[in-house]
Amino acid sequence: MSLCGLYLLLALHSATTLTDGGGLRTSPTELTKGSCVYLLFIHQTCPHSWVATPYFDQLSHAYGSITPVVGVINADQPGYFTWQERFHVRYRVLLDPKSTWMKSFKATSSPWVVKIGHGGKVLNSWGGLSVGILQSLNADMAATAHRPLVRMNTEGAPTIRQYGCIFD
């Protein structure tokens, strides 16, 4: 295993458990017991996260439980409920008001996606938002799910990668 791979594996195991909007606690290793998981790091008050949300919801809906998307938002429960009331996402969202997982997984700004594989291995990460990032994620999720690539509406997504707000 490379030094980078070892570092990311240690980050996975050092990340604390988090609670989702419904009060259920989980850890990174628990999330990956059955399949790969795409952790989507969300900044509650960042316009870049707001713009990205519908695209990630599309991907989550397209590939469902085969390649689940799990959001991690830097908000407490009231903040999450306010955000969810606005966006109505269909994927599970974990609450990380202290940005613990953001720091553990080196998600520096929003939006940021980290693919976690079986056994807790970090397989890939995507920082920022662009049509290219969305296409890359779509292709990766299709390959992971062993399904055909879904047609994704990227209208309105930036053509050049953009990064949003920094996680504190």
Description:
With 168 residues, the protein is α/β, with parallel strands linked by helices. The chain has six helices and seven strands; from the N terminus they run αββαβαβαβαββα. A seven-stranded mixed sheet has the order 2-1-5-4-3-6-7, with helices on both faces. Strand 6 (112-116) and strand 7 (122-127) form a beta hairpin. Helix 3 (47-63) runs parallel beside helix 6. Residues 1-7 have low confidence and may be disordered.
Lay out the secondary structure:
Blueprint: H1 3-14, E1 18-20, E2 25-26, H2 28-31, E3 37-42, H3 47-63, E4 69-73, H4 77-87, E5 92-95, H5 100-104, E6 112-116, E7 122-127, H6 131-145
Parallel strand pairs: 3-4, 4-5
Antiparallel strand pairs: 1-2, 1-5, 3-6, 6-7
Helix pairs in contact: 3-6
Sheet of most strands: 7 strands, mixed
Distance separating the two termini: 30 Å
Estimate the helix proportion, in percent: 25-40%
Order of helices and strands: HEEHEHEHEHEEH
Beta-strand share of residues: 15-25%
Low-confidence segments: 1-7
What is the averaged pLDDT score?
A: 88
Q: What oligomeric arrangement do these chains adopt?
A: single chain
What's the total count of β strands?
7
Computed Rg: 15 Å
Structural class of the helix and strand makeup?
alpha/beta
Q: Kindly report the spatial arrangement of strands forming the biggest sheet.
A: 2-1-5-4-3-6-7
Task: Compute the number of helices.
Answer: 6
Overall geometric form: globular
